[in-house]
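Trying the structure run again after the queue cleared.
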Amino acid sequence: MKIAFRLLFIFEVILALVVLGLWIVARDNFQLCFFATLFWAVLFSMTFGFYWKRNIKREFKGRPGWRKKLELGLVVFLTFSILGLVNFIAVKKDFYLDFTKEKKYSLAEQTVKILGQFEKPLTVKAFISPKDRSMAQSFLRLFQFVKKDIQIEYLDPDVQLAEVKKYGINEYGMLVWEYGDRMAIARQMQERDIANALLKLSRDRSIRIFYTLGHGEVDFKNENNPGASIVFNLLKGQGYELESIDFSLVHDIPSHVDLLMVLGPQNDFLEHEIKLLQHYLKEKGDLLVALSPQVQTGKELPRLRSFLKGKGIVFNKDIVLDRLSSIHNMDPTISVIDKFPTPHDIFENFSGRILFPFSSSLGSVEINKTGMRMTPLLLSSLFPASWGETNFSSLFENKVSYDEKVDGKGPLTLLAAYEEVAPDEQKKRQRFVALGSSSFFINAYATHAPNANLFLNIASWLVEDQKIISLNRPGAQSERLFVSSYQLSLIFYITVLFFPLILCGAALVLYWKRRRM
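Done. Tokens:
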């Protein structure tokens, strides 16, 4: 009988370890953990009660050693109870620490800000296959850490066919986010896609951006270096509706346009096209215009430049040269800017080094003539490091030099924001942004993350959508760890066999010594 009780006691100890393991690795399955714990508690109580009735009273009186055994059992029981309680509290009060250098396992600060815009609970329908559900739960738990009232429902696309048809699900891993009567779909389980979906939910209206065609502008659909498909896709990803407009085919610019972009035209606007622009701006429309230096004769765009000057936007006929660019192994026609001396909403939470290639400088007009206040945002280096070269032929002959009679001294304005000083109370404050370069956002430079981020921030400021802050992160500087098969075997034997056997042996020795005391 004593042997049977000892075997049963060993079984109950092992069962207690299993129960503790369930609370650690399967804590989401509360029913399994609860009933396993209940089963162990009932079995232990019955064994203890039965053994107490038959042996413990008699042996406890006759053998003082039983008191130490009872104390040891009580210590073991209390230890497991405390560990279980701590684990239960950890389940109820989730927290995590991310010690990676690049913060791979944390949400970006911008995503946290977006989640903070929602006052009511968010609902997520995750169409995940059962085999990938554990990974999805770990990822989506990061969002629940930030916003506690996110309700997640996991659906199997191969089983819940009605839901799949209802939401138009055609891929594994798609997430349907709902907020009130609004809905947005993240097609991939990535932070950027989810943040874009959340941005759509946070808006009570769609934002439409038009860009002009027909004058040799930068092509948003071109995926090669001269095109701008990267920033086009980023803008689309932020939930903006982008459409092209050819002034030669329309008689008016739609009134529901939030922003008009004129980016890098090579041919001048016609008179009736200038009238369309004038009517658009008269209705308090916002404008983003980028003009690079026009070095070819007959490409100076006189009508467009004259119209913009009347609105306070002056593009000088020069090329900004910066000798300090050689420090970064860049051509002098590429200004490298890493300091932003003028505080502005466009630079909120922004950092990085901007490459501003082949740019002309911007002049200024008095506020009382235009009603717009100009704020220089990006500046070239101080003179004599930079100046505005007006002799284009000397540039091509590689014989440039500063001419104080016609060239402008640095620092020169490369990017400027314009905002209405005294707006009509019935309408929003009108905004312009002028870029002296139509190349800094093309694909050749947009792969340099800060350039694309800056363009997105400019667009968000113009449409007064401050919720959008670029989510592009710098590339992770992770270091690979190469482990050979021998090293893997060594790790396995040491951690799985060697150390556990040492601990078990030490426990047996300690038990034997205490028994002989």
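The CA atoms of residues 359 and 437 lie 4 Å apart. Worth checking whether this holds up in the mutant runs.
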